[in-house]
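Weekly puzzle thread! Below is a chain. First person to post its structure in token form gets bragging rights.
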Amino acid sequence: MHKFDWIPAFAGMTQVVWFTRMLVCGTMAGVAGITAAAQPADEFPARPLRFVVGFTPGGGSDLVARLLGQKLTDNTGQPVVVDNRPGAGGNLANEIVVKAAPDGYSVLIASSSFTIQPAIYNNLSYKPQADFAPVSLASSSPYLLVVHPSVQAQTVKELIALAKAQPGKLNYASAGAGSALHLASELFKSMAGVDIVHVPYKGANGIPDLIAGAVQVTIAGPPQTMVHVRAGRLRALAVTSSKRAAVAPQLPTIAEAGLPGYEVDSWYGALLPAATPRARVEKLATEINRALATADLREKILAQGLEPRGGSPAEFAAVIRTDIAKWTKVVQDAGIKAEDRKSTRLNSSHG
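Winning reply:
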């Protein structure tokens, strides 16, 4: 044999060894991928969770995210990072979660405005029901119907009568055009058959003007109103929920106080991208419900004027479906026109 005749044979052997190694490595990688994809639900979460909030720190969504996140950390041993992404009325956060990997680790903590956006804005880049998997409600709260003390109405019936006697004379503050408070007020106007002028503000910034008497009426959350009601700066007439609220049990509901059928609840809940494995959706729902069942978390939520909720993904999906239908009708009846998404920054601090 020539002294260099062994080189082709050696090169061939090298290629076989290289191919074998690649085959083994590829097989191992494939097995690892299959193992990761088939990770049992009881091993989730195995790393930190991200709670994406579409509003600024200090709002209702942020508050619920932080309280719930801390309890989940205590229960699972995995940190929960709250990622505030205010902008476009919450749509920025919605888009971030829709585009996130559907692995269960990017969670949208949404407010009830989530069900208003499809009625208001006709160019959303996502479909609220098709592109998200509801996980669980976290909490809910009624709004309060409050007036300035100078308003000559002690009850809901008296307020309706006053508004009918003076059409267009009363003004109401909202958290911005297209906000939950705006639509809750328009639903009241529609059902009562009254003309009260809308004055939009950024977030809760209308409360100082209400206290000053520049506007006379608002529907707003307990955290923004109860301190002023207790101090006598505002007068609460009723709550918007279907039953009396723990935060103000002495107040009647709007329905029982003169406007039968009226019901509006503010809520906060968790959603995941629609393609998230069902086992992980169910596991996260189980963990959220376990957290909400603890006495200390319930006390903290109640102290904020909210009521702990919980429930199954199917129950949360039904709430979303019902609310979207309700707000779509309110928007149509009130003639509220679809706006460019940039205008939703008006209410980006509310949530």
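Puzzle host: Confirmed. Bonus trivia for everyone else. The first strand starts at residue 49 and ends at 53.
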